[in-house]
Amino acid sequence: MKPSSVLFHSFLFLIFFHFSNIKNSVCREGSLRSDAVQKVKQAADKPRVRRGSEREGSKKDAGNLVYPRLIFSPTTGLPDVNRMQNDSSQSPTWGPSLKNSLYPLSENSLSAYGVLVLSLVVFAVGIVGNLSIMCIVWHSMSMKSAWDSILAGVALWDFLLLFFCLPVVVFQEITHRRLLGDLSCRIVPYMEVSSLGVTTFSLCALGIDRFQSITSSQVSPRPVEPCQSILGKVSVIWIGSLTLALPEILLWQLNQERSPVSGIISDSCLMHPSPDQLPALHSLVLTYKHARMWWFLGCYFCLPLLFTMTSLLVTLRIVGNTKNMKNSQCHRQLSWIVAGLAIVYGVCILPENITNILVAYTSLDLPENLLTLITQFFLFLKSAVTPVLLLCVSKPLGQAFLDCCCCCCDEEAKPAAACNADGNSVRSEPINLPYSANDSALQLGTPC
């Protein structure tokens, strides 16, 4: 073959190889462009994922995220939207907060409203009545006797019980949380049992006072006594009641439970002594726990009722043989006042004894929270009804209360009556009424 033809064929082969490379590069670029367009279309068709959503939170590779991870709420099995609708049960930081039983309106909220209204009525009546009894006895110089001082002591303890314990009980019933935590679980039962002791020993002391006043040679049915004698009697009642109620402080404990659905913590007080106590003290508290039902039934229920009824029968028997009709009528009235106080106390303390017996000796499935609430409200009702009964039945206390109300009304009416029809002021001179130290009218009224 000639050299010129060989060169010509080599030149044609190079040209053909060059054109084939250009065609392959163009096809490769076209395929890359088509793949890019296809990926863009697929990305556009996919649903957009919002930040903080469950899909994004479920990614395992946290390093690929270009923004900080969010703090998620605890897993409760409910959607976040449903949990966010009830602002009263969850706080903005997803932590458990107070439960609002008053909203939304349902059967539970109706019962909560009933408890709230009843507690407000009991609180208002009890506070006003007990304050009136204490103020009358404190300001009336003719009522410095053991009888009136013991009644004032009962009124003071009822006032403390309503003022400190009733709000704690109502708050727990509405929100299922306990004010002051474990401290209130120990102090509230201690004050309630101490109130039972004060009322019990006061009724016994009033019965003894009635018997002593009848059998003594003193003319007045309620003789004025020195302060040392009165303080001694009241101190025995209070110290004995506070001492006998001390095991209640070591018996109760706070129990907290978290709801698996809403995540809200609910508090309850359980009668369970702490195992961290000293062995001797723990054994003593357990013995008190096992004997608590019979102790309540015997000491705080049967003792005051039997003592009061026995004292009433003896008093009526002695009064019936006396010739002084005026004194005998006064003694009989005071004895019936003690009997009325004992009846009110027995009716209000009876539900707690029945509840203790049913829980201990029956297998009935009883709601313990409801029974505890009922017994506590009966105790608060006793604290509110007792001063009202005294003001309605006792003539000296009732008359003194009316005198105080009249004094307040007269003070409000004095500015209106200070001027006559011509606009001139009228000055009224006080009228001094003669009285003697033994006048029975001194037993009625106050410094007004």
Automatic annotation (TrEMBL):
Residues 129-390 form the G-protein coupled receptors family 1 profile domain. This is G-protein coupled receptors family 1 profile domain-containing protein. Residues 1-22 form the signal peptide. The keyword Nucleotide-binding does not apply. The keyword ATP-binding does not apply. Coiled coil: none annotated. It is a multi-pass membrane protein. GO terms for molecular function: G protein-coupled peptide receptor activity. It is found in: Cell membrane; Cell projection. Keywords: Cell membrane, Cell projection, Disulfide bond, G-protein coupled receptor, Glycoprotein, Membrane, Receptor, Signal, Transducer, Transmembrane, Transmembrane helix, Ubl conjugation. Pfam families: 7tm_1. One of its GO terms (biological process) is positive regulation of MAPK cascade. The chain crosses the membrane at residues 110-138, 150-170, 230-252, 293-316, 336-361, 373-393.
